[in-house]
Amino acid sequence: MNEKSNKKMSNSRQNPFLPALNGIFTTFRGERNFRIHVVAALAVVGLATWLNVTYTEWRWIIGCIAIVLITELLNTAVEALVDLVSPDYHPLAKKAKDAAAGAVLIAAVFSAIIGCVIFCPKLWSLFFG
Ligand SMILES: Nc1ncnc2c1ncn2[C@@H]1O[C@H](COP(=O)(O)OP(=O)(O)OP(=O)(O)O)[C@@H](O)[C@H]1O
């Protein structure tokens, strides 16, 4: 049995959540954008609690936070893979990285719109109502 198979066997015995948690923490440590999104998510949760949003609004907020963090993690995975297989310039490497970055952008813009729809009227009536 070679070293790779041994590694696979010992990995299969460990807690299946460990590699996933490791991926999240490694991304948090290494990717500035992921850290910004985590801080923004915590700020939004604080604001939503303060403004006493409804259950339906909480569902939208939690969905938006999840979609942004998930796309950031997938973007990081694509970047790492592309850097591994194509460290030099290649049009397909560009296509993969740009598409992954586009997914993050769509998730962030969608979340910003949902945030405005939920928070702007509440903040407006709080300060000017
Ligand atoms: N190997 C490559 N071949 C072709 N284009 C590349 C390659 N690597 C990066 N690029 C181009 O440069 C852009 C930036 O790539 P980079 O790896 O710096 O990621 P990034 O979007 O800046 O993310 P981060 O800041 O999180 O590292 C990509 O979106 C892509 O257009």
UniProtKB/TrEMBL annotation:
Cofactor detail note: Mn(2+), Zn(2+), Cd(2+) and Co(2+) support activity to lesser extents.
Organism the protein comes from: Parapedobacter pyrenivorans
Annotated binding of substrate, by residue: W50, L51, N52, V53, E72
GO biological process: phospholipid biosynthetic process
Coiled-coil stretches: none
Family: Belongs to the bacterial diacylglycerol kinase family.
Membrane topology of the entry: Multi-pass membrane protein
Parts of the chain that traverse the membrane: 34-52, 58-78, 99-124
Organism domain of life: Bacteria
Chief location bin: membrane
UniProt protein name: Undecaprenol kinase
Pfam families: DAGK_prokar
GO cellular component, one term: plasma membrane
Residues holding ATP: E31, E79, K97, D98
Positions annotated as active site in the UniProt record: E72 (proton acceptor)
